[in-house]
From TrEMBL:
Keywords: Glycosyltransferase, Membrane, Transferase, Transmembrane, Transmembrane helix. This is Alpha-1,3-mannosyl-glycoprotein 4-beta-N-acetylglucosaminyltransferase C. It holds the Pfam family MGAT4_cons. The keyword Isomerase does not apply.
Length: 478
């Protein structure tokens, strides 16, 4: 394995080459190729991920200069090795066992405000005792100012000593000598030099944090150092991960802001760390995360609502500028993600494009969309196994299409499966109620029906001229 100090030497060589580039035809591609060869990464010219190239063209407005060459990688498996960095443990006890989730934070000195202590406090206060057993928090104090680090370590150890002793909180620092040169970098997007330096260092800060956290847990979630958490966020995350069992994903998003609430498999962290180091000066971290997801063939964003994390900082870590960004999908109080047991979905409505029936039943931010339904049209859910339902909630329409609701409809539950026209459905149904203003909600369903439920059916009772969006179907079981 190549030592990291060799990588640093290369960064110095590359900076010298940047000066030569002004007087020669050496392109960014040439530098990239040398970099890849130096790291013993294998480029296979015969293997081109055409689908990924098209994906990046279609879904991202922030292009890597070397994009068409990056996609000649067969995969990113050559990035799987750890980066050789000797970390300083500023406050930590030995981690006794691997946890379920690691929460990673990187923090630097701010000109105005400091929210790190409040962020750590929110993580622990919003977690139950049982949840605390399954999480670890790693804070990377990434500022090179040792006096500031000493003050922060003192504050953290005073306020969270019992969490440090319990192995739930670790404070680390990657020494400056492991960083690449951060001066005289390329000024992409016409950013001022100091901003390029700030965001480039931030990429390296996160790379070293990811590298450290690779073996501490099964999953990793990235937060910023000015974040407020939702109550029992870990339980919500576990439920979402369980619902996606058997499906492929690279990144799950629990906030729509920046790099807040981005969840990864821990086995992907070394590759992501190497990726951030490779392109540390090209663009901000959140843009690079989008490219990383695409390179690993996750086509679409998988984001969940309500958001579990909220940006609370008022002043940015860059120059103390104002940053009032808020996630309007965030809910701080505890909320219950539905169980939505395995089921097959059918409809005889005219489906628009790829907004198929299954999307209404998914916990992901997507929906079913059909052309104007007629009286007698149905939307049917057939469960793999009979269930006892505690609560049902169905929402139609969206904020930007508030009239695409079910104006007239009822909801039934059924028992005894039969096979009709190659579709499994129930032979007997019991009506639970009508939709009101496009929505249906009922609690204590198990106290209102005398049987286990095999089917649930939405029926249109009057033809409408408006299209129909079924935004979400949520079912809680006992």
């Amino acid at each position: 394995m190549i030592k990291f100090y060799q990588m640093k030497d290369f960064f110095q060589i590359r900076n010298k080459m940047r000066c030569l580039r002004k007087r020669s035809t050496v392109s960014f591609l040439g530098v990239l190729v040398i970099f890849l060869l130096f790291l013993n990464l294998y480029i296979e010219d015969s293997y081109v991920l055409e689908g990924d190239k098209q994906l990046i063209r279609e879904t991202s407005t922030h292009q890597l200069n070397s994009e068409r060459y990056v996609h000649t990688f067969k995969d990113l498996s050559n990035f799987s090795g750890a980066i050789n960095v000797t970390y300083r443990y500023l406050a930590a006890t030995t981690l006794q066992r691997k946890r379920y989730l690691t929460i990673g934070l990187s923090s630097v000195k701010r000109r105005k405000g400091n929210y790190l202590l409040e962020t750590i406090k929110s993580i622990f206060e919003q977690s139950s005792y049982e949840e605390l057993k399954e999480i670890s928090v790693v804070v990377h104090l990434a500022d090179f100012n040792s006096s500031w680090r000493d003050i922060m370590v003192q504050d953290i150890t005073q306020k969270f000593a019992h969490h440090i002793i319990a192995g739930r909180l670790m404070v680390i620092h990657a020494p400056e000598e492991y960083y690449p040169i951060l001066d005289g970098l390329k000024r992409n997007y016409n950013d001022p030099e100091d901003r390029v330096k700030f965001r480039s260092k931030q990429n390296v800060d996160y790379a070293f944090l990811l590298n450290f956290c690779a073996n501490t847990s099964d999953y990793y979630v990235m937060l910023e150092d000015d974040v407020r958490c939702s109550k029992n966020f870990l339980t919500a995350i576990k439920k979402v991960i369980a619902s996606l069992e058997g499906t492929y994903w690279v990144t799950l998003e629990f906030s729509k802001l920046g790099y807040i609430g981005k969840l990864y498999h821990s086995h992907d962290l070394p590759r992501l760390a190497h990726f951030l180091l490779m392109f540390y000066q090209e663009m901000p971290c959140d843009w690079l995360l989008t490219h990383f997801r695409g390179l690993l063939a996750q086509k679409n964003v998988i984001r969940f609502k309500p958001s579990l994390f909220q940006h609370m900082g008022y002043y940015s870590s860059y120059k103390g500028t104002e940053n009032k960004l808020k996630d309007d999908d965030f809910e701080e109080e505890s909320f219950d993600i539905p169980d939505n047991p395995p089921a097959s979905l059918y409809t005889n409505m005219n489906v628009f494009e790829n907004y198929e029936a299954s999307k209404a039943y998914s916990s992901v931010d997507e929906y079913f969309w059909g052309k104007p339904p007629s009286k007698g049209d149905v939307f049917l859910i057939v469960f793999e196994n009979p269930i006892i339902i505690k609560k049902i909630k169905v929402n139609t329409g969206t904020e930007d299409r508030q009239n695409d609701i079910l104006h007239h409809g009822i909801l039934d539950v059924g028992k005894r499966i039969i096979l009709s026209k190659q579709i499994r459905q129930c032979d007997t149904y019991l009506r639970l109620g009508e939709f009101k203003n496009g929505n249906f909600e009922m609690s204590d369903v198990n106290q209102k029906i005398p049987f286990d439920v095999y089917c649930m059916r939405i029926c249109v009772t009057k033809t409408q001229k408006e299209w129909l969006i079924i935004r979400s179907i949520s079912i809680w079981t006992s």
